[in-house]
UniProtKB/TrEMBL annotation:
GO molecular function list: broad specificity oxidative DNA demethylase activity; cytosine C-5 DNA demethylase activity; ferrous iron binding
InterPro entries referenced in this protein's UniProt entry, alphabetically: AlkB-like, AlkB-like_sf, ALKBH2, Oxoglu/Fe-dep_dioxygenase_dom
A GO BP annotation: DNA alkylation repair
Source organism per UniProt: Penicillium cosmopolitanum
Name of protein: Fe2OG dioxygenase domain-containing protein
Domain called Fe2OG dioxygenase: residue spans: 55-208
Length: 233
């Protein structure tokens, strides 16, 4: 048996494995009400930012059996917009957010062993931040050649080590979490660990419509009767 149960509503979205999608207009009304909550919260959080607001057109429902969890991962697939919102239902759980190991250490594992990370962004909070930042600034100012920059990094970056959680959030039944920004998914990853009970997660995303077959676009659209869309009350 699998560790969790999946159902996708709206535009097609492959989560680890391809999942058959059901159109919003064909799903249960309660699912639409849940989705409208996530539409409301994403609009509150993301609509004021520079990029154009993209209303979620997909909803992934995941049911976790007792003692099952979701390991570290990101939602940075190229088909997705920059905003992801989740409604947590059932058992209390804890969400962790950490910097991806390769950005934390400046090193990454390949088939040829451990190598320097190309184009290291040197994010605040990464391992040996001050030393790495100083080297990168010298390189960007033309004071070091690429070979000298890489040699300097090799001297201070000896081995990989796991990153650690930067944010820890306790999620209770009905809590909503919004992650906004492509860089959040590019440089960080998250996991959710339930306290042992049965838990469900309803996660809404924007699927870029040009990545979907034209005949499937209608699956991500619906209208609720007047007064039924969630308004924060």
């Amino acid at each position: 048996m699998t560790g969790h149960f999946l159902k996708n509503i709206g535009l097609p979205y492959s989560f680890v494995v391809p999942v058959q999608s059901e159109a919003f207009m064909d799903t249960h009304p309660d699912v639409l009400l849940a989705h409208s909550r996530l539409v409301w919260i994403t609009k509150k959080i993301a609509a004021g930012h520079d990029e154009e607001y993209q209303e979620p057109n997909e909803l992934l429902l995941v049911g976790y059996k007792k003692k099952m969890d979701m390991g570290y991962h990101d939602d940075g697939e190229k088909v997705l917009g920059p905003t992801v919102a989740t409604l947590s239902l059932g058992a209390t759980s804890t969400m962790f957010l950490r910097m991806k190991t390769k950005y934390f250490t400046g090193l990454h594992q390949t088939g040829n062993g451990i190598n320097l990370l190309k184009d290291d962004p040197v994010l605040p909070g990464c391992l040996l931040y001050d030393s790495r930042r100083a080297l990168k600034e010298q390189y960007e100012q033309g004071l070091l050649t690429e070979l000298e920059y890489d040699e300097g990094r090799r001297k201070i970056l000896k081995s990989t080590s796991d990153s650690f959680p930067r944010i820890k959030m306790e999620l209770h039944h009905g809590h909503m979490v919004v992650m906004h920004g492509a860089d959040l998914q590019r440089y960080y990853e998250h996991s959710v660990v339930p306290d042992g009970g049965l838990r469900f997660a309803a996660t809404a995303r924007y699927i870029k419509e040009h990545t979907v077959k034209p005949e499937d676009i209608w699956m991500g659209r619906y209208e609720l009767p007047s007064g039924q869309a969630y308004s924060g009350e």
